[in-house]
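Continuing the series of single-chain predictions for the mutant panel. This is the parent chain; the variants come on the following pages.
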Amino acid sequence: MNFTAHNIQLDDGSFTKPGAMLMSDHPCTISTRKILNLVFPSNKKNYRVVDLGCLEGGYTVEFAKMGFNTLGLEVREESIACCNYVKENLDLPNLDFVKDTAWNLDKYGPFDAAFCCGLFYHFDNPKAFLEKLARNTKKLLILETHFATPMDSGVKQFNLEPMAMHEGLPGRWYYEFDPNLSFEEREKMRWASYENDKSFWIQKEYLLGLIYDLGFTTVFEQFDSWAPNMGANLDKSYPNGLRGTFIGIRDA
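Parent structure:
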């Protein structure tokens, strides 16, 4: 079983990726726990959380450990095999995984909270996807993603195209892989897009506006995953990293 990123401790004490940071200790996990506890302080068994493009299920597991009824969606065969292996080796009846594309989330919703980490920037029609996700999210949206800026920051690092308009929003195109790449080769690229060979990164300001327009009237960017040494870490990596965590909360 080949785990590329998620180190999860199983019930027998073994680890899925020995030597790597445990998912329970990952800064993004800790940060996400905080916002979930803030919005859903009690009775977590009454709420459903979806983890979109869950890779090897590390975050999904952590949400289930919190008490949420949790579903992980993952499309690639090798990754969903890792997810199922994790489920078989943990006593978490509130943890489920489905092999499917995130575009089919309508089949499984609605959800009280949606966690979309490392996936959104792999879509060629991100606005359409976020509209679909919003229709299936009743309260809390957690969107950890790359974004674009009209400045030159990060353009060379990610080989981004010039600013363009797409779906009525400004941003930049990012090329995932050669369009002639076979499906079998794409299937093996577990950290890339699945169907589209290029993706559109929305300009940050307009992404925030889109989240608000879709009904999440409390919108902010969460920075505590950059701690400790938050100031130095942000100064060093944020300008060219073009990546952040954006929170949307619907009013009661």
